[in-house]
């Protein structure tokens, strides 16, 4: 994020010369009610907000891990479309069992997907996503994000409570030097530099000055081709770490392109439907909307059409679909690609990360 802002500052300097029962262990259940519940939490907040898209009587139980939820005492009961739970420790992440209509077969574990990290809003848990066979990805094990250089002290305290074992950084050395990560003590950092095929600030400046709409529209299509075809060895290294089954965070600069592709391959290996994977990929647009709007407004204030930048500040379904199309046409489909090109032990991954 900081690297992009630095580039925009460089752009602004160029422009004048040119013309940017107590605590019980809950056994996870294959439940479809996950799709009817969304949970959010603002940074440094003591409350969680729940929204329900299915009518019924909802009961909520609370814990500090998916395996340690107090099922003897509900923290909320409602038949409304939304409810909030407050008075919680803002430095602690919580998990909840939600039950519909007092039916023991309608229970699911939920938490926030977008984590309340002020310094990097595109920080997400890949847990809670339902696979084609009705299982779901375990919460609190695999996270993806953008760079961690702007984390606040509160962010670091919150992250420390995630009990991360490993952070995989897809950025190159120059990127890391410009925006060094802030991370909790005791977390192992693994560097796997991934070339994303994007263009330098001089090229982007030229496109802005020329008003080259097509160049911006096609840039991230090119990026996803590069990721799928040229970066297989690096993603193979990445999945070697994923297969250790440790709590892991992977990230790039903004968390949407290199990390977005990695997340798509991870979810594909677990058997998540492609449409759901693309929807998850598009979440970056919501998480980064504030930064995107700020950047566009800044460039526009310098007399250029900042809106031209939107296609590279956001993601589109077509970008990731380009990678899937190449995988299908040139590598015999996603299953073959994951096993033979990325070297993934699919069954091991499912045993580690599905419930």
What do you see in this structure?
With 355 residues, the chain is an alpha+beta fold. The chain has a single domain (2-20, 113-353), classed as Protein-Tyrosine Phosphatase, Chain A. The chain is 39% helix and 16% strand. It has helices at residues 2-14, 153-160, 173-178, 201-210, 213-230, 232-242, 258-269, 274-287, 289-301, 310-313, 317-330, 334-341, 346-353; strands at residues 23-24, 37-40, 48-52, 58-65, 68-70, 76-78, 82-85, 95-100, 107-110, 123-125, 142-145, 166-169, 188-191, 248-251. Strands 1, 4, 5, 6, 8 and 9 form a six-stranded antiparallel sheet that branches. Strands 10-11-14-12-13 form a five-stranded mixed sheet, with helices on one face. The chain has a three-stranded antiparallel sheet with strand order 2-3-7, with no helix packed on it. Helix 5 (213-230) crosses helix 11 and helix 7 (258-269) runs antiparallel to helix 8. The longest helix is centred in the middle third of the chain and has 18 residues, at 213-230. The two termini are 34 Å apart. The model is unreliable at 8-31 (pLDDT under 50).
Give the H and E element order.
HEEEEEEEEEEEHEHEHHHEHHHHHHH
Q: What is the first-to-last residue Cα distance?
A: 34 Å
Largest sheet: 6 strands, antiparallel
* CATH H-level superfamily title: Protein tyrosine phosphatase superfamily
Q: Structural class, from helix and strand content?
A: alpha+beta
Rg on CA atoms, Å: 21 Å
Amount of helix: 25-40%
Mean pLDDT: 91
Q: What is the name of the CATH topology?
A: Protein-Tyrosine Phosphatase, Chain A
Number of separate structural domains: 1
- The CATH architecture name reads Alpha-Beta Complex
Percentage beta strand: 15-25%
- Please report the number of helical segments: 13
Q: Give the beta-strand count.
A: 14
CATH class: Alpha Beta
> Rough shape?
globular
Uncertain residue segments: 8-31
């Amino acid at each position: 994020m900081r690297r992009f802002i630095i580039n925009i500052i460089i752009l602004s300097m160029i422009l004048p010369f040119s013309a940017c029962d107590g605590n019980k262990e809950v056994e996870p259940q294959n439940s479809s009610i996950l799709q009817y519940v969304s949970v959010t939490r603002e940074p440094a907040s003591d409350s969680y907000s729940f929204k329900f898209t299915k009518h019924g009587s909802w009961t909520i139980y609370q814990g500090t891990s998916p395996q340690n939820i107090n099922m003897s005492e509900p923290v909320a009961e409602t038949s409304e479309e939304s409810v909030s739970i407050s008075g919680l420790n803002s430095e602690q992440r919580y998990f909840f069992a939600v039950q519909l209509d007092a039916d023991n077969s309608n229970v699911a574990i939920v938490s926030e997907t977008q984590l309340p990290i002020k310094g990097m809003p595109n920080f997400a848990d890949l847990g809670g996503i339902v696979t084609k066979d009705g299982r779901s990805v375990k919460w609190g094990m695999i996270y993806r994000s953008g760079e961690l250089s702007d984390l606040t002290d509160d962010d670091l305290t919150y992250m420390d409570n995630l009990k991360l074992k490993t952070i995989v950084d897809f950025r190159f050395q120059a990127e890391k030097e410009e925006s060094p990560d802030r991370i909790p003590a005791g977390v192992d950092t693994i560097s796997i530099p991934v070339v994303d095929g994007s263009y330098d600030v001089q090229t982007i400046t030229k496109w802005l000055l020329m008003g080259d709409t097509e160049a911006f529209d096609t840039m991230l299509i090119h990026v996803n081709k590069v990721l799928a075809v040229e970066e297989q060895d690096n993603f193979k290294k990445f999945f070697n770490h994923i297969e250790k089954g440790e709590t892991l965070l992977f990230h790039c600069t903004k968390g949407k392109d290199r990390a977005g592709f990695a997340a798509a391959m991870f979810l594909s290996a677990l058997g998540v439907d492609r449409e759901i994977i693309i929807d998850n990929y598009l979440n970056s647009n919501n998480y980064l909307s504030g930064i995107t709007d700020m950047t566009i407004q800044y460039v526009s204030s310098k007399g250029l059409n900042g809106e031209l930048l939107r296609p590279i500040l956001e993601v589109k379904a077509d970008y990731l679909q380009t990678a899937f199309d190449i995988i299908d046409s040139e590598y015999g489909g996603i299953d073959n690609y994951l096993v033979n090109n990325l070297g993934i032990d699919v069954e091991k991954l499912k045993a580690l990360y599905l419930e």
